[in-house]
Design brief:
The longest helix is centred in the first third of the chain and has 22 residues. Helix 4 packs across helix 6 and helix 4 crosses helix 7. This protein is globular. The protein contains seven helices and no strands. It has one domain: Ribonuclease iii, N-terminal Endonuclease Domain, Chain A. Helices cover about 65% and strands about 0% of the residues. It is mainly alpha-helical and about 160 residues long.
């Protein structure tokens, strides 16, 4: 387990839980946050911008359609255990639905988020980041293309 997760559990007196006991929607809930922090970190590091511009940039990367495309791109790279987590998330019956997504995209995105939550909670942060990188590369191209207008990193 990653040192920061272990410290968080120790500091708040949280016990160990069998990761397989979490529902896929609980994993997706956690994965949504973990994925978003990676995206926000990446965007903030690309240069100082107004929060409204950061929100607009991140919205395109965290929406269900983008996550669904990333899931399809990384699926061949997944281990058998990771694939099972993804499939459990994809097949989970969610009571909610994204406003601007097809049912298929929403379900694939939920699978992707479940996988991100699983990797985050098991301390596999490098693996999570590697899969996010590969997914973004597949759907958005290289780093410079992830920014609006393809602008290069702004000087600090």
């Amino acid at each position: 387990m990653d040192e920061s997760i272990a410290y968080l559990k120790e500091k708040f007196g949280l016990g160990e839980v069998d990761i397989h006991s979490y529902s896929p929607l609980t994993l997706a809930y956690m994965g949504d946050a973990a994925y978003e922090i990676v995206i926000r970190t990446m965007l903030v590091d690309m240069g100082n911008r107004q929060p409204s511009k950061l929100h607009r940039l991140s919205s395109g990367l965290v929406k269900a359609g983008t996550q669904a495309a990333m899931a399809e791109a990384v699926l061949p790279m997944l281990t058998e255990a990771e694939k099972q987590v993804y499939l459990r998330g994809r097949n989970a019956k969610s009571p909610t639905m994204a406003k601007h997504a097809t049912v298929a995209d929403y379900r694939r995105a939920t699978g992707f988020e479940a996988l991100m939550g699983y990797l985050y909670l098991t301390g596999e942060h490098r693996r999570m980041i590697d899969l996010i990188y590969e997914g973004l590369a597949a759907v958005r191209g290289k780093k410079e293309d992830w920014q609006a207008g393809g602008q290069k990193r702004e000087e600090k």
